[in-house]
Amino acid sequence: MSALGLRGPLGYRAASGWFAAAAFAALIAADFHVASLDPWADLRRLLAGLARPDFASLALLSVVHTVAFAVLGVGIGAGAGFLTAIPYARSRTLRVLCAMLRSVHELFWALLLMQVFGLSATTGILAIALPYAGICAKVFSEIIEEADLSALRVLPPGTGTVSAFAYARLPEVAASIRHYTLYRFECGLRSTLVLGFVGLPTMGFHLESAFRQGRYGEAAAFLLAFYALIGTRRLWVRGATLPFLIGLSPFVLPTVAGSPDIAAGLLRFLTHTVVPSPLRDGALLDPATWARLWSWFRPILTGQIVPGTIQTLVLAQVALASTALGALVLFPLTARRFTGPLGRPLGRALLVVVRSTPEYMLAYVLLQLLGPSMLPAILALAIHNAGIVGYLMGRHADGLAYRPDAPSGLNLYAYETLPRLYGQFLAYLLYRWEIILREGAILGLIGVATLGFYVDAAISELRIDVAVVLILATMLVTLAVEALSRALRRALRIADLPTRLSRPLATDSGG
Q1: CATH superfamily to which 284-500 belongs
Q2: Are 493 and 8 within 8 A, CB to CB?
Q3: For 58-261, which CATH class?
Q4: pTM here?
């Protein structure tokens, strides 16, 4: 039980208690109002439709588009992230830029890029590539920094930096980078699906239309097709097939409406659209201009940024605590010691389905059933993230060495397994914290009163300058939580525990 006691400046028990207290306070402030007149009847209709998938209505071209967007978006993002990862640790400017890129959700990027490129393939690709470049730069840099340096010490004197990296360091990190890139591709498929909710012709576009119109059989067909894509990813994304996928993807992208003059649109976007309206025609040296700017910004701050930030933090805290409880319940389903050789594959399949379902889509479905409140968003975030953390914790549980006289059942869980995994459990939760906050902000696009709600309203009113200010506020909140999470991991001395899928465990080399 020592793992649950004090360890370093901050103890696991104290950290857990503070987070539980914060979640309880957030729970009091959260809105759990169920607006649907008969949610159980709606749920029965939904399940009845999902039980009879209408595969005849499946638009196969949307599946192709989903894969193509993911291949190109993740490929460009991972490539840029790899090139950036080499100088990442030595450049504070680069680290800040990458942090800014990854702190903005793909949907926010898509809404901004649509102002320049229109509803085009370029918008979809860049909406994935930009944040993924920031994510991959950070993760790849950590992989490179943690690599074994013994090969460098045997290089002949005078070996150049590029040659040293290519021959001594790259072979050490190539497998981890490849592994993480394949996992990021799975995330890219989920992101591409969600981009359909803003109009891009991916599977998400047809899913949103089917759910909105109550065609649940059609929605079931698209969901099952998407799960099949995720579940068979290792079969069709391999070294031999990657050149074919990358080479073919540009030629199967959808032909959708784009901006007729991208250069002029980009220039107008940077010099006029995103510039706060009081600064567009005012003299920068005139105090009256800055007075007008403050008069413009103050209602945004008090009426949108402050309440939106509070609601986003409340949502994220309750969702994080719910994720913790869900993961503690779910991870034994994937551990061999608890479920045996027959139950483990079923448990793993269940959690693969859960973690493969994007939070945005799950929240959208729950919103149709329960009405607009925080409840659909919290449930969606908790279900998805509990599936991820539970899946990873189950893999770690399979790697534990138990003594011959170890107990079984609940005693094995409470006294042998959980205490030994608790540090890793906290590491995963703190890592997911910033991700939950980032996803919680974007759920405002479907009606939850987080920062994304105000961003969506500003874009709908063509007040892009206001939307940019709100997105910057979201970025700052996300970066602050990321910094706090990193500080807590250091204080708990769990910063060196793996929190990525880039390090395969001995029991499972998959993603």
Answers
A1: MetI-like (1.10.3720.10)
A2: yes
A3: mainly alpha
A4: 0.85
